Amino acid sequence: VNTPTDPEAYILLADLALRDGQRTVADLGYGKGLELLSGFDTNSHRAKILRMRTHAGMASLCEVRGQFANAEKHLKTWAKDDPDNPLVHGSLGRIYFQLQDYDSARESFTRLTQLEKDAPPVQVAMGRLFHSIEMHDEARAQMQEAAKLFADDLRVRLAIASWAFSAGDKELAQ
């Protein structure tokens, strides 16, 4: 290796390890990558991209491990470097939801819908998440609100119907 202080090899290996479910290896790789990034000043644009990749990977790793507060920290750091990335805001929405900060989750999903025209409405995203933790009344209320707000949007109506079928809610599925 000609440049042993270049963090990219560690970050790349961490990305691959995370995809393969090797969480400890991913954690070590991202950790070493972040360590090396702190003194990496040969190319500021490249360092920024590597920093974003590292924080995105660390956030995913933390989310899988149920370490939602740590995931939030990594996502916020990523968002500082890339504030208009829809992936950041969708991920933040999920993390805030897991932290039971529903207002912040809604804000993140709202920002996501501003950045990504194909993103589901906030109410559908929140409804799905409520359903995933078996808060069925809240899930249904979110889907009903989406049905009222987006009555003429076929894409949204299909998302609601799909959710309703899986939830066994025949009335809302119609």
Short description, anyone?
Helix content is 76%, strand content 0%. The N and C termini lie far apart (62 Å).
Query: Tally the helices: what do you get?
Result: 10
Give a short account of the largest sheet.
none
Percent of residues in helical segments? over 70%
Percent range for β-strand residues: under 5%
- Give the N-to-C terminal Cα separation: 62 Å
Helical/strand content category: mainly alpha
Q: Give the CA-based shape.
A: elongated
Folded structure, characterized:
This protein is mainly alpha-helical. It has ten helices and no strands. It has helices at 8-19, 23-37, 44-65, 68-81, 86-98, 102-115, 122-132, 136-149, 154-167, 170-173. The longest helix has 22 residues, at 44-65. The model has no long low-confidence stretch (mean pLDDT 94).
Describe this protein with a few key phrases.
174 residues; mainly alpha; 76% helix; elongated
Fold topology:
Blueprint (H helix, E strand, L loop, with lengths): L7 H12 L3 H15 L6 H22 L2 H14 L4 H13 L3 H14 L6 H11 L3 H14 L4 H14 L2 H4 L1
Helix pairs in contact: 1-2, 1-3, 2-3, 3-4, 4-5, 5-6, 6-7, 7-8, 8-9
